[in-house]
Amino acid sequence: MDSSSVEDSPRYFKITKSEPVLVHVEIKSPFPEYYYLSNLDQNITSIMQTVFCFKPDGDKKSTEGVGLVIREALAKVLVYFYPLAGNLTLGSDEKLVVKCTNRGVPFVEAVVDYDIDVLGNVTCLDSAMLSKLVHTDSAARDMFEIPLMTAQVTRFKCGGFVMGMTMNHCMADGISAMEFVNSWSEIARGLSPSIVPAIDRSVLKARQPPRITRVHNEFLEIKDISNISAKYQESEMVYKAFSFDQEKLMRLKKLIMEDGTIKNCSTFVALTALLWRARTKALKMKPDQQLKLLFAVDGRSRLVNPPLPKGYFGNGIVLACSVSNAGDLVNKPLSYAVHLVQNAIKMVDDEFIRSAIDYLEVKKEKPSLSGTFLITTWTRLAFNTTDFGWGEPTQSGCVTLPEKEVALFLAGGGNGTTVLTGLPVNAMKSFQELMQI
């Protein structure tokens, strides 16, 4: 299919966009010139891009004015989340901080001359299509010029609409981002935010003096003896969504426990072990290739001294880590990988998180992704509660994955889980077979 026919097909619809309007904090209340970012925020500067799809409902009001409602609510919610209207800069210590300039959040309105059903299932990660539904600043040359947040409201012929949002990950993890969106939608409905954000991040400052008391293999530099990076560079990347309903998940957990070494296993752990092993096989790694599995663990319930306040706005996640060689991972029972994942989760307590923050203070390192598989999960995020006044979204999802080494877990239908990941095209064929349960 040539490019012109792709553009003319419904799935690759034409979209008409307005020029961006800068939305400023509505009340010019005094705020600090600079806003502190913790060590957990420093290394996560990828741009999260999400879409929320709202189908028309015959009993609901017209969506003709939806853009104005959402834009005005954004100005109001920024009073609570004012750093999002600023921009990144370097502080005197060479760390990232937000300069609270109130330069504003770019806001775009758009229209599409198709019904919203043209989008299909947005979890299939059709980035060529979904990228039209979010606004990116093509003129920005680096992360200091890229807006910390943008918003786009796209109306479809049927009356449905999509709210597309980008946000720099250094400003929020998934939980914080969804609390922001839900506060925004509450204000759009004339309510006050049900969770008032706690935006002071100094609670996650490094200890003085810093104390590295735990082993932090998440920063381990791994030698790529299997030419993994070359396989990614030499072949086209293919992204697939894999659905696991309750029946499949039960079969997977039964398989894991059949050798008697595992007594119970969560869905997250089971799928993580399965993916790590399948990816290792599909990429044909050498038996003595050292491998690292990283996955995000929410520290909110694990931080106790002091605890994170309710509504903490920022990154409250740390990376847990498992290490194995490829031979053991591929040849040993799946329960072996499960043990590794479970043990990594157990290690994440208050002291581990404080030690990780102190490690970053001293070493100033970014976790290496060589020989690494990174898993993040959005299964517990309240995507479906966002109601701007036209009902809850019928579906939501991400536009792209931030790195080629990443897999993302999303909530599936009927308490199932959908897994999104990408691999070089040849490896994906094998991976798909290995994912059959």
Automatic annotation (TrEMBL):
Pfam families referenced in this protein's UniProt entry, alphabetically: Transferase
Q: Name one GO molecular function term.
A: acyltransferase activity, transferring groups other than amino-acyl groups
- Source organism superkingdom: Eukaryota
Q: Which InterPro entries match?
A: CAT-like_dom_sf (IPR023213), Plant_Fungal_Acyltransferase (IPR050317)
Give the similarity note: Belongs to the plant acyltransferase family.
What's the protein name?
A: Uncharacterized protein
Which organism does this record belong to? Daucus carota subsp. sativus (Carrot)
Q: According to the entry, what is the taxonomic lineage of the organism?
A: Eukaryota, Viridiplantae, Streptophyta, Embryophyta, Tracheophyta
